[in-house]
Amino acid sequence: MPEPVTTPEPTDHPEIDTSVPHSARIWNYWLGGTDNYPVDQAAGDAYTAVFPGIVTIARGSRAFLRRTITYLVSEAGIRQFLDVGTGLPTAQNTHEVAQGIAPDARIVHVDNDPMVLAHARALLTSTPEGATAYIEADATDPDRILAASAETLDLGRPVALILSNILGHVADHEQARSIVTRLMGALPPGSHLCLNDGSLGVDPVFEQAQDAYNNSGAVPYVLRTVGDITRFFDGLELVDPGVVPVTRWRPDPGSPTPEVAEHGGLARKP
Ligand SMILES: C[S@@+](CC[C@H](N)C(=O)[O-])C[C@H]1O[C@@H](n2cnc3c(N)ncnc32)[C@H](O)[C@@H]1O
Question: Does the structural domain 23-268 have CATH classification 3.40.50.150?
Answer without folding.
Answer: yes
